[in-house]
Structures are given as C-alpha cells and as structure tokens.
C-alpha cells in the first residue's frame, strides 16, 4: 500500500508561511444524531462508491504523516458509527502521530476501552445540554443518558484528557453554560464553547438571532468563576482559560469574534477525499481522484498534497447576515 519513506518535515508550508501539521479526517458523513446546527432533518447521505474506503483513508493518513503531519483527528459525521472503523483506528495508531477523535459520545459506552487500546490519546465529546428533553430537541434523535454513559466509560478507560464541546445558541442553551462548566469541573474535563458557524442552510433557528459570542459566554462564566487567560494551545483553534480552583480548562472557539486564521496549522479531508484547505472557503483538491486513477502511486499522492498547500487561503470570511457562503454542512466538512 503506502511505501515507508522518511518523513519530509516541513513539506507542508503554505504561501503565508503557515506550517500544516494537523489533519482532520472525516471518516463518514453519516450520524445517529441530527443536530439542528449541523444537519437538516432529512439529510441525504452519500452513496457508498463516493465515500473513501477504510484502506483509502489509511493511505491518506500515512501520506500526511510522511509529510510531517503530527496530529490526526478523526471526525465526521459520527466517526464511531462507521462499520469497522476500529480497523482504521488501529492502523493509524501505528503511524506514530497523535491520534484523537471528535465524537458525539453515543458509542463510547461500548467502544471506549478499544479506542484507548488502539492508540487514541484524546477524545472531544459534544454535549450541548444536560436537560434530556432539550438534548433531544437539539440533536433531534440523541439520548442524553447514552452520551453521559459514554463520557463515564471514556473516563474509566483512562484517556489523557477528555474535552467537551458545546455549541452555544441564544435562547436554546445559553442558560446552561454554568451547568456545563460545573459538569466539566466535577469530572476533571476540559470544555470548549463554540460559536455556531454558517455551514449549510438550516431552518430550525435564525443563525444571526441565535448567535452567542464567546465574549458573552465568558462573561456568563465569570459570574461564578473568574477566568485567567493562558497561552496553552492544543494545536486546535481553542483559546484557553483557567479557573483558580480547578484543573479543568475552559476553551473558546470563536470563528466570528476572534478570527483564528493567522496561525491556522490544519487542513481537512472530507469523506469523499476532498482536501479542504480552509473550513470557510471552497478551495479544495480531489485526492480520491488521484488515489483511484493512480492506485499505489504514493509519490503522486504526496506531491498532490504538497502542491495543494499553495491554495490555502489567508482567512475565512463568515458573515451571519448573508446567505451561507458555504453550502456544505458540517458533517460533510468534517467538524
Ligand atoms: N459527530 C461528532 C460530534 O458531534 O462531535 C463529530 C462531528 S461534529 C460535525 C464536530 C463538531 O462540530 C461538534 O462539536 C459539533 O457541535 C460542531 N458543529 C457542527 N455543526 C456546527 C456549526 N454549524 N457551527 C459550529 N459547530 C458545529
Ligand atoms: Fe452528528 Fe456531530 Fe453533526 Fe451532531 S454535530 S449531527 S452528532 S455529526
């Protein structure tokens, strides 16, 4: 499959001097939830031939690592609903990069120990509400109890650091910010609050009306816990704060209010094998085409990835008042 070649450190540098060493790889567009900000209710999922095989996903991961990538995040859709995903995870776990996952937590009760054994070091688990009915409304199909059981299982499995991700929407869950912080503190978890991004057209709420800035969320938290800014980063877009009396870190992912493009070190690959150079732009290169047209030609695949770096745009331009500029949904993009 992929030849063993010495890693080309610094092979992936874009026109603005940013070194790309972090890849978010979407392993499926499917999901057992239908979160209101992420999907429409009647999502159409991709036909199988359009989706990368597990072998192709592995080939991509190996190519990126051979080009100096140090961290791979598996995401989706819900990565853990893909059949035989553990095979892929075990394979990538042997590549020597940091391997992390973003999950909705629904499968963790049964999969957490196997993920740990396969080499996953950290998991980000999405949790927007601690109220079962509200959780159901936000996810349309999810059961809070199942996710809470998954979080406990992940804690028991001994992951290095677990983090919760919460998208905050005004009038829908902004009154739960402090409860979510307390939930994280009680369990020694980190938690990041995310500003909703305009990916795909949704009907459930008006994105401009529901917009809750990170500064507003921070002010809510500071009513109870003063926050100290830190310089800690986890190679992701979160800016972290600490509380005086807890190990839990509070992160903010603020694509609107604090543009994080200047030190962007990451690219995404959709489950169709489209290399996306920026979350908020359509610049992309079709890696599936290269892999299927030239099977086994790993040098060509690597060169295509290197050349693609020139397409990475300087920044994104999200604008809540416009029609979504990005028509793909987050589950297609690989959140
Ligand atoms: N299914 C997994 C999960 O929910 O964690 C992984 C994929 S999901 C697309 C990754 C993250 O993107 C989740 O934390 C989710 O809350 C977030 N997300 C989805 N749509 C979003 C949007 N429109 N704006 C901001 N965050 C979004
Ligand atoms: Fe599924 Fe994650 Fe999207 Fe929710 S945010 S619908 S769990 S992919």
Strand content: 15-25%
Label the CATH architecture: Alpha-Beta Barrel
Query: What level of helicity do the residues show?
Result: 25-40%
Biggest β-sheet: strands ordered side by side in the sheet = 7-8-9-6-5-4-3-2-1-10-11-12
Rg (C-alpha, Å)? 19 Å
Total beta strand runs:
12
Q: Mean of the pLDDT scores?
A: 89
Number of helices: 11
The set of bound ligands, ions and cofactors reads: S-adenosylmethionine, iron/sulfur cluster
Q: Could you name the CATH class?
A: Alpha Beta
CATH superfamily: Aldolase class I
Number of domains: 1
List the helices and strands and how they pair.
Elements: E1 22-26, H1 54-66, E2 71-75, H2 85-93, E3 98-103, H3 108-118, E4 122-126, H4 132-139, H5 144-157, E5 161-167, H6 177-187, E6 190-194, H7 207-210, H8 214-222, E7 227-229, E8 239-243, E9 249-253, E10 266-269, E11 274-276, E12 284-286, H9 287-293, H10 298-308, H11 330-333
Parallel strand pairs: 1-2, 1-10, 2-3, 3-4, 4-5, 5-6, 6-9
Antiparallel strand pairs: 7-8, 8-9, 10-11, 11-12
Helix pairs in contact: 1-2, 1-10, 2-3, 3-5
The structure holds S-adenosylmethionine and iron/sulfur cluster (SF4).
Iron/sulfur cluster is lined by residues 31, 33-35, 38-39, 76-78, 104, 126, 330-331.
